[in-house]
Amino acid sequence: QVQLVESGGGLVQPGGSLRLSCAASGFTLDYYAIGWFRQAPGKEREGVSCISSSDGSTYYADSVKGRFTISRDNAKNTVYLQMNSLKPEDTAVYYCATDCSDPSGYLGYWGQGTQVTVSS
After folding, report:
1. With 0-12 CB in 10 A as exposed, 13-18 as middle and 19+ as buried, what is 15?
2. What is the pLDDT of residues 4-20, one digit of tens each?
3. What are the backbone angles phi and psi of residue 71, rounded to the nearest 5°?
4. Phi, then psi, of 51 in degrees rounded to 5
5. What is the pLDDT of residues 21-78, one digit of tens each?
6. Which residues are CB-contacts of 72 (< 8 A; sequence separation ≥ 6)?
7. Which of 5, 47, 106, 109 gives the lowest tally of CB atoms within 10 Å of its CB?
8. Distance in angstroms (rounded) separating the CA atoms of residues 81 and 73
């Protein structure tokens, strides 16, 4: 069964850190660019970060640049999103996908999402 599963979300205070994981089963992540997206309440889903399949090049939305780091461990078939200096506006459901371009969810495989709440 082809599946992406996100984990690592939770409640954290402003300024804190979380590391999200995106684990694949039923297929190999090596061949895919992997994107992280997020959707805050009442807002459209937006792209957060992407890592390529070929040379590991990365992309970050301006809102997270310098605070978030995407990485991949092909041996573990997992992609990570390290989130530091979290802000309340980072509160959202975070999704990973085998697509970096389209936040609609129609392209590629998508996980079920993990909730990140940044609040004091």
Report:
1. exposed
2. 999 999 999 999 999 99
3. -150, 165
4. -130, 135
5. 999 999 998 899 999 999 999 999 999 999 999 888 999 999 999 999 999 998 999 9
6. 29, 34, 51, 56, 78, 79, 80
7. 106
8. 12
pLDDT of residue 60: 98
What are the Cα distances from residue 27, in Å, to 85, 92, 103, 106? Answer: 33, 27, 21, 18
**53 exposed, middle or buried (CB, 10 Å; 0-12, 13-18, 19+)?**
middle
3-state helix, strand, coil in the chain (%, to 5): 10, 45, 45
Q: What pLDDT digit, counting tens, does each position of 80-102 carry? A: 999 999 999 999 999 999 999 98
